[in-house]
Amino acid sequence: MANAVRVTDAFDVKLSCKFKEARIMVQTNHSYCTTILVGKNASYDGSTIIARNEDAGTAVNPKKFVVVQPEDQPQTYHAKLSGFNNQLPDNPQRYTAVPDATDDQGIWGEAGVNAQNVAMSATETITTNPRILGADPLVKNGFGEEDLLTITLPYIDSARSGVKRVGELLEKYGTYESNGIIFSDVNEIWYMETAGGHHWVAERIPDDAYVIAPNQTGIQEVDFNDPAHFMYSKDLKAFVSAHHLNLGNGFNFRNIFGSNTQLDRHYNTPRAWFGQRYFNPDSVEDKSPMSNDLPFIAHANRKMTIEDLKYVLSSHYQDTPYDPFTPGTDSEKMPFRPIGFNRNQELSIIQLRPNVPSEYSAIQWLAFASNVANTLTPFYANVDVAPDSYRNTTKLVDSQNAYWVNRLISLISADHFHTVMDDVEAYQQRMMGYAHQRIIETDAAANGLTGQQLSAKLQAANDETSDHIIDATRQLLTTILTKASNGARGSFTRGHY
Fold first, then answer.
1. Where are the transmembrane segments (predicted)?
2. Which of 347, 413, 432, 441 has a Cα at 20 to 30 A from 406?
3. Are residues 114 and 227 in the same domain?
4. 332, pLDDT greater than 90
């Protein structure tokens, strides 16, 4: 697997889900990120839930959590990498985002919720095939992951309208990469996939279903007579017909536009296999991690929780022969790329709840650095400012900062996994219990409040929650640093003399 990843060394790699250099017009078969989508009838409390790891080309790419106010949103957007320029609509909304710590390579806003409780996550890098790239080449000065959240989320009022806006932009300007883009509101989740420079399709995820998407084109049969569940570029059918792209029956978007390579079978499909093995094991018991026919739409054998999503998005093939943390294992010889690993940068799980007033129904659960050793912090989205320890990330290491304290923990725990994981897992259990307690308490305190009074209450709650979790995280760092130091190479005591 290490050799496969090094295929990117010839390129200038962006420390995010994608390639840094927008000028690269080569569609590669491996990038980063893993997505899970959960319909409202499949979740434990009736919420729509969207989740995505943002991974990187290297282990360190500092991130921060911010609230963007309308007055801070640009009127004219200029992409740093591709040169894409766009005059943005008037009257943007407030929204949350998880951008890079500095914007020298662009914003890379990644995931957030706007003031109308519409959520977006962008993007899941996906693969396509050379026939598509020949018929509809990628656009050198189009837009991509760097840009998508910023030019979309402030201007939409539903998940469906998010698909419509990005579709119109794609058809007009084009993109320099292939991506999966997620939209949700309290009722619907839509997953949109691009193919070539200008073509796309989007599917509404059934309410009783879930999806796990691992850097591959996923959407399967498209029903052109079902506008309630499918949207697509205007000329999609004609384009496919004109270029003889459909090699089978029906209209299977994955088969027509996707790839099916050896690298997919080692880098991508094993992640979907592990997730489906966890949520609905009976359906994959006869399939291997390299199976090329795992379904896009899946159904769990139980209601799905925030903890379930965190478990899968932190997973490393535990309880299988492919776990790189198995004692005595050479991790570089493991055949499959895990979901939870050192290149995780941030995880956003966005939960839109139907059972509380809309003014405080949106929660963005956030974790920084490697998911194997971190925990989620729940943030109410209807606030004006994010907590200091999550907002003020710099490129210098700072153990007071959420990104950096978790990055340090991830480094130590990876190198001393079996020495410190009891401490890490106990911390994770305590913090998730605390997080759910805080939501119950804050919902009760917010009941009946409106306007600025409500926003101030939610912001104070976010601050208190983050302070508690940061304090516990710094204590964990102290504990595991002490343990790991005792076993460091070159140690010596007088008792050895």
1. none
2. 441
3. yes
4. no
Q: Hey, is 282 helix, strand or coil?
A: helix
Which among 304, 328, 355 is the end of a domain? 355
Answer whether residue 237 shows pLDDT above 70.
Answer: yes
**Cβ contacts of 473 within 8 Å, gap of 6 or more:** 375, 402, 405, 406, 409, 427
Residue 363 and residue 348: Cα distance in Å, rounded?
10
Tell whether 250 is covered by a domain: yes
Q: Is residue 493 part of a domain?
A: no
* Apex 60 CA angle, 58 and 63, nearest 5: 125
Count of domains for the chain: 2
What amino acid positions are annotated as catalytic residues?
33
DSSP states of 160-206 as a string? HHHHHHHHHHHHHH-BSS-EEEEEE-SS-EEEEEEETTTEEEEEEPP
Whether the per-residue pLDDT at 14 is higher than 80: the answer is no
Q: Are residues 444 and 326 in the same domain?
A: no
Measured CA to CA, the distance from residue 270 to residue 214 in angstroms comes to 9
pLDDT digits (tens, 9 = 90+) for 279-296: 999 999 899 999 989 999
Query: Which position has the higher pLDDT, 388 or 32?
Result: 388
Spatial contact of 184 and 352, defined as CB atoms under 8 Å apart: yes
Angle at 188 between CA 183 and CA 194, to 5 degrees: 35
Residue 28 CA to its chain's centroid (Å): 19
Are 314 and 415 in a shared domain?
A: no
pLDDT band at 461 (very low <50, low <70, confident <90, very high): very high
Same domain, 71 and 134: yes
Please, are residues 74 and 107 in contact by the beta-carbon 8 Å criterion?
A: no
Domain that holds residue 420: 395-488
Output phi, psi for 5, to 5 deg.
Answer: -65, -35
